Automatic annotation (TrEMBL):
SUPFAM superfamilies: D-aminoacid aminotransferase-like PLP-dependent enzymes. Its cofactor is pyridoxal 5'-phosphate. Keywords: Pyridoxal phosphate. PROSITE patterns: AA_TRANSFER_CLASS_4. Belongs to the class-IV pyridoxal-phosphate-dependent aminotransferase family. The keyword Cell cycle does not apply. The keyword Repeat does not apply. This is Branched-chain-amino-acid transaminase. One of its GO terms (cellular component) is cytosol. One of its GO terms (biological process) is amino acid biosynthetic process. GO terms for molecular function: catalytic activity.
């Protein structure tokens, strides 16, 4: 059975899909993306993903020939064409600035290119959720604050790929970025939380991190359920002495951590608060299906 992608306004067999060699996404990584997950045909937090995407498109001065409704319609068509309407799916929305005009600045009347990829979801191993994962700090040291770029999901993803490769060779499932002062920022593909004394902590958005969609859902769940949550600067010493650690992402959801570098987090993984949040997160998905788009 053929797989189809949405590109240049139409559905195309994936093996026949083409991107011009002068597309700025290909040449320079000049593009944005969103990674989404559908649960049995429902895209969770779709509107939030599109809000983030269009915020970035506006800030980074993309000329938009399409709107959110156009993307929603393209998503429906792509999911349906790939027979994923009743299955869990991995979905990627990609927007490049378009064909390079010869100038590197944002001007030039570019026409962005929209690509949508959808495939059946390969679930994370169940043991990741029941026993936890290992995470490793990356050798890359980011500045703590001041960059206008880390809040956007840029197509230029090599820093994250490099960090994930480091984690792989350290037999870990995720890499974590620190600053030169050993402040914890975020994971290569996730946001980071920890628990100490029944309080949930996570780095603030004033630092160089992505405003993760699942991160925001977890903060909201905490507030709705009487779990104290604080957004504050987190030092490496804080996290290696935490009672619990977990990471969040749209594809994986909430995943407990059992070890960071050589430090074992806790005897019980997942911890009590992490376990509670994992259940509340699953409940949130079920409740929100009524407000999501059925494909």
């Amino acid at each position: 059975m053929f797989k189809y992608v949405f590109i240049s306004g139409k559905l195309v067999i994936e093996s026949k899909a083409k991107i011009p060699v002068r597309d700025r996404g290909f040449l320079y990584g000049d593009g944005l993306f969103e990674t989404l997950r559908s649960y049995g045909g429902y895209i969770f937090m779709l509107d939030a993903h599109l809000e983030r995407l269009f915020f970035s498109l506006k800030v980074l001065k993309y000329n938009l020939p399409f709107d959110k409704e156009y993307i929603k319609d393209a998503l429906r068509k792509t999911i349906d064409k790939n027979n994923l309407g009743k299955r869990d799916a991995y979905i990627k929305i990609i927007v490049t600035r378009g064909i390079h005009s010869g100038e590197l600045h944002f001007g030039g009347g570019y026409k962005p290119n929209l690509v949508i990829i959808a495939d059946s979801l390969t679930h994370y191993p169940e043991v990741d959720y029941t026993e936890g994962i290992n995470i490793t700090t990356s050798s890359i040291r980011r500045p703590a604050m001041g960059s206008p770029l880390y809040c956007h999901k840029l197509l230029n993803y090599f820093e994250n790929i490099f960090a994930k490769n480091e984690a792989h060779y350290n037999r870990s499932q995720e890499a974590v970025f620190l600053t030169r002062d050993h402040l914890v920022l975020e994971g290569a593909t996730s946001n980071i939380f920890f628990v100490k004394g029944n309080i949930v902590y996570t780095p603030p958005l004033t630092q160089n991190i992505l405003p993760g969609i699942t991160r925001e859902v977890v903060i909201k769940i905490c507030r709705e359920n009487g779990i104290k949550v604080k957004q504050k600067k987190v030092h490496y010493c804080d996290i290696i002495n935490a009672d619990e650690i977990f990471k969040t992402s749209s594809i994986a959801g909430i995943v407990p951590v059992k070890k960071i570098d050589r430090f074992v987090v806790a005897r019980k993984v997942p911890g009590n608060i992490t376990s509670k949040l994992m259940k509340l997160y699953r409940d949130k998905i079920e409740y929100s299906k009524l407000d999501s788009i059925s494909l």
